[in-house]
Amino acid sequence: MDAYSAEAEAAASPAASNLKAQDSNQGIFHAVWTFSFRMVLRYIKNSYKDDPFRTFLEICLIGFIIWYITKQKYNIGNNEIVLSEKEIDELVDEWKPEPLVPELTDFEREILDKAVIIDGPNGTKVRLASGSNTKPVVNFASYNFLGFLDNTDLEKHAYETLRKYGVGSCGPPGFYGTLDVHMELEKQVAAFVGHSAAILYSQAFATTLSVIPCFSKRGDIIVADESVCFQLQQAITLSRSKVYWYKHNDMADLERVLKDVNKQLVGRRGKKALPRKFIVTEGLFQNTGDISPLKDLVDLKHRYKFRIILDESYSFGVLGKRGAGLTDHFNVDPHEIDLMIGALCYAIGASGGFCCADKDLIEHQRLSGLGYCFSASMPSILTVAASDAIQALESSPNSHLASMRENTTLLRTLLKRIPGLQVDGDPESPLIHIRLTPETLVRMKRSGGAWTNTDIKRVLMELSDETQKDGVLFIPSQYVDEHERLLPNPSIRICVSAAHTRKEIEKCAHAVKSAVSRVTSKKR
Description:
Blueprint: H1 3-50, H2 52-70, H3 85-94, H4 106-113, E1 125-126, E2 137-139, H5 152-165, H6 173-177, H7 180-193, E3 197-201, H8 204-215, E4 221-225, H9 230-239, E5 242-246, H10 251-265, E6 277-282, H11 294-304, E7 307-311, H12 326-330, E8 339-343, E9 353-357, H13 359-368, H14 370-373, H15 380-395, H16 397-416, E10 421-424, E11 431-436, H17 438-443, H18 453-469, E12 472-473, E13 475-476, E14 492-495, H19 502-520
Parallel strand pairs: 2-12, 4-5, 4-6, 6-7, 7-8
Antiparallel strand pairs: 1-2, 3-9, 8-9, 10-11, 11-14, 13-14
Helix pairs in contact: 1-2, 5-15, 7-15, 8-9, 10-11, 15-16, 16-19, 18-19
């Protein structure tokens, strides 16, 4: 081979190599494509043979994907409206934003202007920040049933706790907010009530709003007393359950509702899971002062296969031989109550709330109770105060409960002797509601025609103002009118305390009698 031929062959060899590489790649691609096509064909044949319906669904899905990718996209275009500076200024001047809070009515403004403000610590005797009366008044407006707000021993220990633990944990219990005092109080509450376990919440209102939605969900069923307090009504609403209401403390009507609910569920058995069913009520009703007939509730619970959620916010520390609540009052096994809710800010004089139940239900709340998971834990100073109060109640129940019940009986007896006054609530309830009798309202001269709720509330406000002049403090009951399931009749709520003396009880009755006489004699 001559030099020219060798050079030509050397120059042509790279191109030949590239051609061979391209042919090789094309061969590999063709082989892979052929193999894949055969595999897809084999999958389609086997799939159609074994499950033709699945093949149909896959073809529909592929067709939808192709249609979605190739369809014409919506083009919003340029719809901008160009306004002049003058037009913009005119629109701004015409715009009137809606108020975040609706304007107060004249009566609401009147209530706000007359709101009672306590100057200094709360207790049996308090000073008012407004008004001409600068002397201390006897306080019948606070839920200080056992008188723990005036206990100097609890106050001293609270100061010591503040120096040891500080003000608060600043964190939820599930993270770094749990202290030893929290765990000790949970054990103490469960042992005092007689239930399996307990869980603490930092606020009493949040306790109810956390526990009920934690267990009763959308599709579940709640049968509730129509006179339950506002916080229970809100918790029931938040649960999004199907709700049925029965007449207040009417066990015959409750049984009728339970029968109707079970009849509706007969056709669902075997088709899908049955809903959870709850009876919701209060131990001591805030709006009426009545006590729930617990034994009848437990009997109906077993007969119709329901669970009971009992709110003992106002009965804990008040009812029963030991002050352990409604189960102690009726001598009923606490385990009959599936979920027992209580408050530590009323009779106990501290803060927060609790729920007593079986251990599994308590552990569920530690993961699903919103008030437990997302709110800072109870301050240690209030935790220790609640623990000391329960310990004091356990060690000497007679010194607190006996005094409270003696004062309650005395005040009820004296109030019932006042002409024109209606005294409501259970005889053993230290939470008393007083109203003017319908006959008294009829006898009162009024030029405006029939009495309305607003008119009656104004009269009760006058009654409250008159008693303050005589050195006795209580205020008319206030309700969220638009959101109350059953709006109670206007009343004045009186809270009896174990710390009240006999003279203070007699002073309260005398002040009410004088106020009723002065108010009812006025021309309207």
